[in-house]
Amino acid sequence: MAMPLPNDGLLLVVKRDCPTCQLIAPVARDLAQRGLLAGLFSQDDPDFPEGLQVIDDRELEASFALDVEIVPSLIRRQGGHDAGRAIGWHRGEWQNLSGIDGLGADLPEERPGCGSLSVAPGMAEELLVRFGETGIRARDVEVHFPEDPVEQMFDRGWTDGLPVVPPTPARVLRMLAGTSRAPGDIVGAIPPGFETCTVEKAAINAVMAGCRPDYLPVVLAALDAALDPDFAWSGLLSTTMGAGVAVLVNGPIAKRIGMNAGLNALGHGNRANSTIARALQLIAINVGGAAPGGVDRSTLGHPGKRGMAFAEDESDPAWQPLAVARGLQPGTSAVTVFGFCGTSINNDEKARDAEGLTGSIATCLNATYHPRFAGGGIGAMLVLSGEYWRIYRGSGWDRARIETALHEATRRAPDKVEQGYVGVHEGGDETGLVAKFAPGDLLVVRAGSSAGLFSTIIQGWGSGPRGSQPVTREVIP
After folding, report:
1. What is the pLDDT of residue 208?
2. b (16+ CB within 10 A) / e for 397-423
3. Domain at 9-120, CATH class
């Protein structure tokens, strides 16, 4: 039952752990003695102020109902509504509310108050869950001691095999605060079961993945991109090749949420990198029903099926970010989703110019999927480290020239990709050569530290009409 509040009169909210509240204790006694104080609420000590009839508000129900942000707060109520308030101590404001001249004559003219316990970090959402209307529509699942919520989520099949964060209502509310979109907005139908996913359901799974609220716009943009028919997410989830979702982030939001584009960008250790794409996989499991052994028929799988996300290194203005190359305006926050089946690191300590480095990388790219495979039908994302980019830039090459040169260097004679291994188109192009990748199927990005002559090939799943195309979306706050 909600705590009843007086409809008329002065209400005062205080806490002992506030110097200004202690300062105005004599004023509270004066108002009480005059019969003007209809309610005195203490947030931390029902015996403060001493000698007065104090309402225990340690549960902060009254503070929440009165929307108290600063204590002391003196509030005039009329007909059950707020008719004026003073925060902290200001003699003139308190006199206007009380109608008493000379109130607190022995006190300083004014003193600032302290933060209300009801607005302490994380408390606003907790109080909304206890005493307000959250707007959350997901059903509650009660877990009673000695049951462990984390173990219960394992038992119910709600995880990707690693522990997940219990999505309490307060945590979900905090997550939803990260986006301007309404909780009930429909994002789309999640494969393979094609159940409807709302922003709220996405937020629940983002909590479980370990995301922070400021990651949610990136998660939603990546989810929207993954639902594009060109991405063929349903195929990714059901293929025997064991494909996962890689998420590349461009633009100011990458720095704003602390994503890693440098040392170990494709590895562990960064919260945003580790959790954003994981949220998509959990959405596929918990909303779409993509359970391994069910629709997910991966023969071997790979660790990246849990998801991989990283930011592109945009520190050098000579480099064109991928999102810009794919049609967005410079400075736009964006994500590109790419279906992938694993990674391969490549090293060349002897390449010293762009032509030699291109030939070296092309040799590695030609082994993607199978050395005999060519003619299109599979994609790759090549991640250049800082040292590799330094070689290219020193030779005056930009992104476009690198991509063109790699396409040229990965073409081979038909007898080098003959039938009998993996299917290949008959013959070649006008030069008589067969291209490894179709136009647009090789993406080149920058990430990683400035030390180490390395590149990483993120091997795609399949491209073309029956495969998956990378999809880019702007991040909307």
Report:
1. 97
2. bebeebbebbbebbbbebeebeeeeee
3. alpha beta
Give the Cβ contact number of residue 366 at 10 Å: 21
Residues of the chain with pLDDT under 50: 1, 420-425
Res 421: pLDDT: 45
Q: Any idea what the Cα angle at residue 268 is, between residues 235 and 180, rounded to 5°?
A: 65
Quickly tell me which residue has 């129900």 as its tokens.
61
What span, in angstroms and rounded, lies between the C-alpha atoms of 189 and 248? 22
What was the pLDDT predicted at 466?
A: 76
Q: Is the peptide bond before 72 cis (omega within 30 degrees of 0)?
A: yes
The pLDDT value recorded for residue 372 is: 83
CB atoms within 10 A of CB 256: 12
**Where exactly are the structural domains of the chain?**
9-120, 150-417+424-474
pLDDT, position 175:
97
H/E run at residue 474: strand 471-474
Instruction: Output the pTM of the full model.
Output: 0.86
What residues pair up with 308 in beta bridges, in sequence order? Answer: 246
- Three-state secondary-structure class, residue 118: helix
